[in-house]
């Protein structure tokens, strides 16, 4: 392959965004799965809304606001779980294959990096807690450009930092909208379709579709 770098979305791709709630499911109550779904959906909605308006707030603030909405919206959940859930989001579980795949890519000589909506403190905490510091070269946060994905300025952070062409980047995301935008930017994109979702944005297809990151080593 002619790639110089393997770049990964963080939330949903390397880190399980639902692990914060599942870790405290008993405390949250019977609607914990619904709470986690609404939390994630609102978190993303807020990034798109603010990017469209040009009214940036950092991702941790939006994550907190999204949880507050979800706690109010979902019935019969324990409001007292708020602080524990926010703390858990700082140390989300990574998917089981992630450390070994990143290690293998680095040993093959590729640059490995994260490109994420996450604020720098969020990313640093997640990376450290998952033990990924030694298998990642960089963690790029959109906070540095003040706009969220899918704005092209976020993807250009990689090409500018590494002084490479978009075609020299293999970009991995579990979020189809992110994969579409990265493909539109010119990256070679691998969609990590962990939950067998139907395809969207068919005019901006990924180069590959795999069920988890192990497929990168095939």
Q: What is the beta-strand fraction?
A: 5-15%
Order of helices and strands: EHHHHHHEHEHEHEE
Mean pLDDT: 97
So how many helices? Answer: 9
Structure description:
This protein has 218 residues and is of the alpha/beta class. The protein has 9 helices and 6 strands; from the N terminus they run βααααααβαβαβαββ. It folds into 2 domains: 5-16 and 92-217, 3-Layer(aba) Sandwich (Rossmann fold); 19-89, DNA polymerase, domain 1 (Orthogonal Bundle), CATH 1.10.150.240. It has helices at 19-23, 25-28, 32-53, 59-73, 82-89, 98-107, 120-129, 152-162, 176-185, and strands spanning 5-8, 111-116, 138-141, 169-173, 188-192, 208-210. A 6-stranded parallel β-sheet has the order 3-2-1-4-5-6, with helices on both faces. β4, α9 and β5 (188-192) form a beta-alpha-beta unit.
Summed up:
The protein is α/β, with parallel strands linked by helices and 218 residues long. It is built from 9 helices and 6 strands; from the N terminus they run E-H-H-H-H-H-H-E-H-E-H-E-H-E-E. The radius of gyration is 17 Å and the shape is globular.
Key structural traits:
218 residues; alpha/beta; Rossmann fold; DNA polymerase, domain 1; six-stranded parallel sheet; 6 strands; globular
């Amino acid at each position: 392959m002619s790639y110089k770098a393997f770049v990964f979305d963080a939330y949903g791709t390397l880190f399980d965004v639902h692990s914060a709630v599942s870790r405290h499911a008993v405390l949250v109550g019977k609607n914990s799965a619904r709470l986690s779904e609404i939390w994630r959906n609102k978190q993303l909605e807020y990034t798109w809304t603010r990017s469209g308006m040009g009214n940036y707030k950092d991702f941790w603030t939006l994550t907190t606001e999204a949880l507050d909405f979800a706690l109010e919206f979902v019935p019969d959940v324990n409001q007292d779980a708020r602080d524990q859930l926010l703390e858990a989001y700082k140390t989300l579980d990574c998917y089981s294959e992630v450390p070994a795949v990143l290690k293998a890519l680095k040993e093959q000589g590729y640059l490995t990096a994260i490109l994420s909506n996450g604020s720098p403190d969020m990313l640093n905490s997640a990376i450290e807690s998952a033990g990924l510091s030694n298998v990642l070269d960089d963690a790029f946060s959109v906070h540095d450009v003040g706009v969220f994905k899918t704005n092209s300025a976020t993807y250009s952070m990689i090409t500018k930092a590494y002084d490479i062409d978009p075609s020299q980047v293999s970009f991995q995301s579990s979020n189809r909208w992110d994969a579409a935008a990265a493909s539109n930017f010119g990256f070679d994109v691998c969609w990590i379709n962990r939950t067998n979702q139907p395809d969207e944005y068919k005019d901006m297809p990924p180069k590959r579709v795999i069920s988890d990151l192990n497929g990168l080593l095939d």
